[in-house]
Design brief:
The complex is a heterotrimer of chains A (364), B (506) and C (320).
Chain A: E1 3-9, H1 17-39, H2 44-56, H3 59-84, H4 92-108, H5 118-147, H6 151-171, H7 212-229, H8 231-241, H9 243-248, H10 253-280, H11 291-301, H12 306-325, H13 331-346, H14 348-351, E2 352-358
Antiparallel strand pairs in A: 1-2
Helix pairs in contact in A: 1-13, 2-3, 2-12, 3-7, 3-10, 3-11, 3-12, 4-5, 4-6, 4-10, 4-11, 5-6, 5-10, 7-8, 7-10, 7-12, 11-12, 11-13
Chain B: E1 8-17, E2 20-30, E3 35-40, H1 46-53, E4 61-66, E5 69-71, H2 76-81, E6 84-87, H3 99-104, H4 116-130, H5 145-158, E7 163-167, H6 175-190, E8 194-199, H7 202-208, E9 211-216, E10 219-226, H8 232-240, E11 258-268, E12 274-284, E13 288-292, H9 299-306, E14 313-318, E15 321-322, H10 328-333, E16 336-339, H11 343-347, H12 354-358, E17 369-370, E18 373-374, H13 376-389, H14 406-419, E19 424-428, H15 436-451, E20 455-459, H16 463-469, E21 472-477, E22 480-486, H17 492-499
Parallel strand pairs in B: 3-8, 3-9, 6-7, 7-8, 13-20, 13-21, 16-19, 19-20
Antiparallel strand pairs in B: 1-2, 1-4, 4-5, 9-10, 11-12, 11-14, 14-15, 17-18, 21-22
Chain C: H1 3-29, H2 37-55, H3 58-82, H4 87-105, E1 119-120, H5 131-136, E2 139-140, H6 141-159, H7 161-171, H8 173-178, H9 183-209, H10 222-232, H11 237-256, E3 262-263, E4 266-267, H12 269-272, H13 277-302
Antiparallel strand pairs in C: 1-2, 3-4
Helix pairs in contact in C: 1-6, 1-9, 1-10, 1-11, 2-3, 2-4, 2-9, 2-10, 3-4, 3-9, 6-7, 6-11, 10-11, 10-13, 11-13
Classes of the chains: A mainly alpha (364), B alpha/beta (506), C mainly alpha (320).
Amino acid sequence: MGLRVKVEKRVDVPKWLPAVTAIGAVILAFIIAGLIFKFIGGKPLVALRFFYQAVFGSWAAFSDTMVKATPLIIVGLACAVAFKMRLWNIGAEGQFYAGAFGASLVVLIPIVPMNSPKIVVIGLMILMGMLFGAIWGFIPGFLKAKYNVNEIITTLMLNYIAILWNNFWIFDKWSDAGFQMTPTFDRVAWLPRLADYAKEYKIFSGITLHMGVLFGIVAAFVVWWIFKYSRWGYEIKLIGDNPKAARYAGVNIVRNIILVMTFSGALAGLAGMSEIGGVVHRLQESISPGYGFTGIIVAWLAKLNPFMIIIVSILFGGLIVAGREIQPSGLSFLLQGIILFILISSDVLLRYKIRIVRTEEEAV
Amino acid sequence: MSSTVPAVEMKDIVIRFPGVLANDHVNLTLERGNIHALLGENGAGKSTLMNALAGLYKPVSGTTLVNGELVDFNSPRDAIAKGIGMVHQHFMLVPTQTVTENILLGMDKPRFFMNLRKYDQKILELQEQYGLHVDPTSKIWQLSVGEQQRVEILKTLYRGANILIMDEPTAVLAPQEIDELMRNMRLMADQGKSIIFITHKLHEVISIADRLTVLRKGKVTAEGRSMQGVTKEKLAQLMVGREVLFSVKKEPRKPGKIVLELDNVFAKNDKYLPALIDVSLDVRSGEILGIAGVGGNGQSELAEVITGLRACSGSIKINDQEVSNQPPINAIKRGVSHIPEDRTSVGTAPNLSITENSIMKGYTNNPIGNGWSINFAKAHEYARNLKEKYNILAPSVQTPVGKLSGGNLQKVILAREISSEPLLMVAMQPTRGLDVGAIEAIQILLLQQRGAGTAILLISEELDELFTLSDRIAVISDGKIMGIVDAEEADINEIGLMMTGSTVRE
Amino acid sequence: MSFVIILHAGIATGTVLLFAAIGEIFTERSGIINLGVEGMMLLGAMAGFSTSLATNSPSLGVIAAMLSAGILSMAHGVVTIHFQADQVVSGLSLTFLGTGLALVLGEGLTGQNPPLIPDFDIPGLALIPYIGPIFFQDHSLLVYIGYFFAPLSWYYIHKTRPGMHLRAVGEKPEAADTLGVSVYGLRYLYTFVGGCLGGLAGATISLSVSPGWYSSQTTSGQGWIAIALVIFAQWNPIRAALGGYLFGAFRRLILDLQGPKLLLGLVNPLYINSNLSFFLKMTPYILTIIALVLGSRAAVKKRVGAPTALGLPFIRGERG
């Protein structure tokens, strides 16, 4: 008689298991990252407390976290839409920049005079941001649909192109007195912030949370509805699960690839607009500390569930807030890599049961 | 080692998969120089048992003796070392490599550098000895199915196999090729090779086997008996455990007007080689036109051009309207339903539920499709109806279809394809891989559709099935229609000859 | 601006892509797609640089670069081979992990000056007009190794027994499995090989071609370009090498275009407004997309394609 580890294929997955493995993966990732942190000479527990303070310590801190979570929510949704169809849009970063550029055009050209009503300016910025993001998503979508060009590479190359494109305008045409940024936008192009209402409600003073978070919540509902109830969502799921079956069922795959990439790009563009209008208030270099890439992890960690994306984004928003203070800067990349790795490894638990059995049991 | 020691003795073999007892204390004894048939329905555990003998699976318990010596295989390499070679049902060949490369795969020699020409010569010598001819420098994808099978056999012989396991070797062959295979098998047995021959075709067992073992649901129902006095009916009963009807009753046909008409259709396959050459045929309502042929002779492409999944030239008309080269949705809207050859990779989406799979063809239609949205309450109701009507065994309509058995999965497809009340049904291999009970049920459903006036194009590799169901049979070989005959006056030998491309009957 | 200089630089920088792309070809030929090349290269660049700094030996640096990236690639190996996770997602994770590790461990390396891999001339050959100055003068050992590496890789893949096994595992793993060829074993091996070569490519940057540690700018997306190159080269090492050199020459060309006042007798717009160089800097990425479009179209036409089992986990008994 002895003990043996036995691996069996799961026939059915208990409902609670995916959630438990996801949470377990995050905790394990924190432990591993902590060990690495310790190894390079940091104090992980102090950092963790610091992390908690920086993220949830006060209303202002939490608001900061939410501000960082806002672009992640929207970009995460953008990635989720594409991933649902197994289109690997890793160009959300570029689409984010394209969206920021499009939104900035409204002010910089300017498309409407800056004494127009706020609703007109902001509305146009949303439109232009989504349009430019959509164009940036359309290109790889079109190439994938028509010429079967690998979208991973094209979306990635377009990231570099978008950033260089932005750089040209902020270094050249719209440079603010030689600085690598445009002048600050007129107030009319700022998204309303809670702090703007500090006079009426004292509690809001210093709270930087802006209207972009509403975009994220609305977008989450829209994506949720699309996935759950719409005809389009059904087609996306069908193509994602089995493209051959989708073609057989008469679904237009070429059109859907282009549509999904365009929509995904439009969402990422909206995130860029929200960041420009709500936080930066001008076009400049490095408006994103890798939101487009973190969005990939957010979407995957949330298992493409729109509401889970909100929750996961808050966690990662906190990570970014804390990461600003914690050195070295690569640590947040490292942590994200570890979390993602552990998460996809933990998926094996959803497919296999691992039991420890007595060897005699086997003959039964 | 005396010649009285059996080549293989397997005793009390137990193999278990999650939720399934695949082999339940199975015994099998293979005498030297014998051809031993291993008979059983799909899922009876034949392949599992043989995979264990070939070192691919490890039994939970039981003993295996090879040439009287106790063995315990941990990998196929161990089995090969003991002279066991397996010819798999789905060929285990690398399509982009040559015959010689495939044969050398996994061998210890050559060690690093390869002098392929020298080995080509060695393989030619081996071919001469056993009469298995195939050009060693050809790439596998250029070979016919029969030739590929010869490569599989050569692979085992090159490794010095004395014990050959042949897993349903005749399933993919035309009747004449089957005859040749049988001659080769006898030649090998006469030269001292011992052969286990897995099949579910009863007449083959009777014509070639020396001894026979029957499995049913993982248990042995006949162990190593000799072939004396064995009848087809007796075998069927051992296999299925009940009397089997050898033909489903068919109403006389009442063909109506022409529904499907193909005229001079040409098409290419995925390798851009001609797959359909000048195909012309028609199917009337209330009629089943069977397409006979060895797999890979253009059948898949035929089904695909009609359903809009593949481009072609020539004319395809449904109810006098041209449909060729239009997107699949147009064929669906015109009332064409399609039971695809590959039910898991084409016919269904494995992770989606029964409901989501049942509405695949009709999700745009009222009341389930509702403009931009889908009414899932109605969809579930619809799926529940199908589940009941077609007796689909599943916990609920929310169950992902990937968890269903082959028979139930096929029922989901059939339910979906029939319930749209099609004008034309293209059914490809609708019963392949199913157990006898499920086959019967599906054949009856097809005949009911015929009675309801649907035009049916039935593509099958089972001649028995074609004779049972079809009104007319068209034979396809190398993408050409060799002839179309009336099923009642058709002669199986003549059909067999046409399948190999030998005669064309006008 | 001289064509000899541009081609000379192209050969040098192209060697980076050559190693990374051929490494990825080995990995993909075995059926595993590893998108983490960028991460592996960056880790390799960092490990090579810091090891050379610590030991004063650039050769040890190269070894450290290869091993570290090889070990990193094993994370992808375990997750995709044994756990059967999605290879795309795992590869992306590897990019994050490699980048993160390189940045964290590479803190403070910027501005350091470790011993580099020396450049030298090949006696005799260096004197051939045009050919000599481009191919045989003033290159590092790694560049010269590259000349042999591509044809040898091709020979290995197509003409040797282990190469035959490699192709079999990527095309039809179940066939290899039934003949006792270890599918998992070979996939681990070639994932590791791909990782090592990715690390070598990284070290080629940081210790030879453009020496130094500039955090994530060290590789600046060359890992991704290498992956695109694999598709463009249709999994052929020799085509990958030629593509790499061409690409390297082009990168040098766009650098050199910014210098002169006159171009082809016309006023150089870049000389007047240096900001226009942002558009020039886009061209490698645009070129990659164009190369990919051309490669994908050619692949369809000529029926050459990715290894059949690329990206699919192998589970014994689930197929066939």
